[in-house]
Design a protein that fits this description.
By secondary structure, this protein is an alpha/beta fold. Helix 4 packs parallel to helix 5 and helix 17 packs across helix 18. The chain has a nine-stranded mixed sheet, with helices on both faces. The N and C termini lie far apart (62 Å). The longest helix has 17 residues. It has three domains: 116 residues, Rossmann fold (3-Layer(aba) Sandwich); 220 residues, 3-Layer(aba) Sandwich (UDP-N-acetylmuramoyl-L-alanine:D-glutamate ligase); 148 residues, Protein-Tyrosine Phosphatase, Chain A (Alpha-Beta Complex). It is built from 20 helices and 20 strands.
Length: 506
């Protein structure tokens, strides 16, 4: 076992000798296939064990020469893994640590890596490795990553967004054109599998945007979830960016084991102190990356300009500041940041204006899949008809309901787990009108929701789809949920919102 460990410790380059290494890959989604494809290219013997796979990936796996065992129940996979006798297991995000395959590997003393660790080790395939900027948080990760990449590209850097956004890091590091900077979005699942050692990621700069309860059903507790998020700062070389409004992120930085000389850089919506990013009289400022940061600041953009670009919601402004800190840490000039923000557009289903009629705005924030994200979205508007519910992932909505009830005209509850949501409203906001949509047919859900919403919304209101929950109980994903909402809104308003009323289906 010591010899195997020594060999794995030495595999810190694409050009190391990976040949003959026996590797089991768990999962055959986008990430799992990228892992298997990479390992075969490196000369490893690869066994993939997955509970499901598309016909196309099964065919491609056969083409590249990896073995596959499909096993939804776990028994055949355990037998196959035991028989294969791997030197290493690489696990796709989402596999719970108590999964039988992982318990077997642990019992056998086999090292377990995630795709991020493997990607870091082989990042030199196309020459000089790109620097990594790593980001995580309960809410705002994808927006911040997109903003950072836009700033880097505006400065002429070859930059790519990858990781939890859906583009595997391994696909990017194997791109023959190469990159200067990778902006890597990391989920709590991916961070969980990032263990200390020779292959440990050492980012140029890192950020945890915020922390609130999420994925507790996977991590087991809020403390374990927070511990996973905190790993983003480990071995950071230049800047640990944290949220001045979220003490938990400051604590993460204070307790992180970083490279000597790495600085703590705060961001927030108030006046910035030295080494912070913030706002002074409507101007977004950098007081971190300049020589005389105690007495001066660099102007990045203004709230007025962000309003023109559709980026002025408070939580989006916070994302802008965090992204600016990452970009400034690697030398992007302030004027370039301003230009990049002027041209930037938010991703679909992120506080996206669907329609406006009779003084009512219809907003799709289907990407708000947890309470923290939904709370930020609610905080951007004064009077809201809130569409809420779905798969709760083990979290309680009582806190957000209590905090935001003064902004609610009404709430429309959807999803398979409606009972806990209704109970939370009864406990924390009994004065708020709550309507329940029980539509078993996916096709009928959003048309029903929009009719109900049109019946209670008044001039000046926002009808906000910010469900604070995952979507897979009734929809294929949050994008499907948001798209169905937008289609239903446009179809209904095309006939005149004033003539539409709740049908009693609520």
């Amino acid at each position: 076992m010591a010899a195997e460990t020594d060999r794995l410790d030495g595999l810190t380059s694409w050009h190391a000798d990976w040949s003959g290494l026996r590797v089991a890959v768990l999962g055959l989604g986008v990430t799992g296939f990228s892992v298997a494809d990479t390992l075969v290219e490196l000369g490893c013997e690869v066994l993939v064990v997955a509970d499901r796979a598309t016909p196309e990936r099964i065919r491609l796996l056969d083409v590249i020469g990896a073995m596959l065992v499909l096993d939804a129940g776990g028994g055949a996979g355990v037998a196959a893994l035991d028989d294969f006798g791997p030197d290493l297991v690489v696990v796709s995000p989402g596999y719970h640590p108590d999964h039988p395959l992982l318990r077997l590997a642990s019992d056998r003393g086999v090292q377990i890596w995630g795709d991020i660790e493997l990607a870091w080790r082989v990042r030199d395939k196309s020459g000089t490795p790109a620097e990594w900027l790593c980001g995580t948080g309960t809410n705002g990760k994808t927006t911040t990553v997109g903003l950072t990449v836009a700033m880097l590209r505006a400065d002429g850097r070859r930059a790519a967004a990858c990781g939890n956004i859906g583009i595997p890091v391994l696909d990017v590091v194997r791109d023959p054109s190469g990159f200067d900077v990778l902006v890597v979005e990391l989920s709590s699942y991916q961070l969980h599998w990032m263990t200390p050692g020779p292959g440990r990621v050492a980012p140029w700069a890192s950020v945890c945007l915020n922390l609130a309860d999420d994925h507790l059903d996977w991590h087991g507790s809020a403390a374990e979830y927070a511990a996973a998020k905190a790993l983003v700062y480990t071995d950071t070389k230049v800047a640990c960016v944290y949220n001045l409004a979220d003490p938990a992120t400051r604590t993460m930085v204070e307790e992180a084991d970083v490279v000597d000389g790495a600085r703590a850089v705060g961001f927030g919506l108030g006046i910035p102190g030295p080494s912070d990013f913030g706002i002074v009289d409507g101007i977004l400022c950098d007081r971190a990356f300049l020589d005389d940061r105690r007495n001066t600041a660099l102007e990045l953009t203004t709230i007025a300009e962000l309003t023109e670009a559709g980026l002025a919601a408070p939580h989006v402004v916070a994302n802008v500041l965090a992204a600016s800190a990452l970009a400034r840490s690697i030398g992007v000039p302030p004027l370039v940041i301003r230009d990049a923000l002027t041209a930037f557009s938010l991703d679909p289903h992120r506080i996206e204006l669907v329609a406006e009629q009779d003084g009512v705005r219809w907003i799709d924030d289907s990407k708000a899949t947890n309470p923290h994200a939904a709370s930020a979205s609610l905080g951007a508007f004064d009077s809201v008809v809130w569409i809420v519910g779905g798969l709760l992932k083990g979290v309680d909505l009582g806190g957000i309901i209590g905090d935001r009830k003064a902004r609610l005209r009404a709430a429309i509850v959807i999803g398979a787990e409606r009972a806990p949501v209704l109970e939370a409203f009864a406990r924390h906001a009994p004065e708020v009108q709550v309507l329940e949509v029980d539509a078993g047919d996916t096709e009928a859900i959003m048309p029903t929701v929009t009719r109900v919403a049109a019946g209670v919304a008044r001039t000046g209101d926002v009808v906000l789809l910010a469900p604070a929950a995952a979507s897979m109980d009734q929809f294929s994903d949050y994008g499907d949920r948001g798209t169905r909402f937008a289609v239903a809104v446009r179809e209904m308003l095309g006939g005149g919102a004033d003539d539409t009323h709740p049908s009693g289906a609520a």
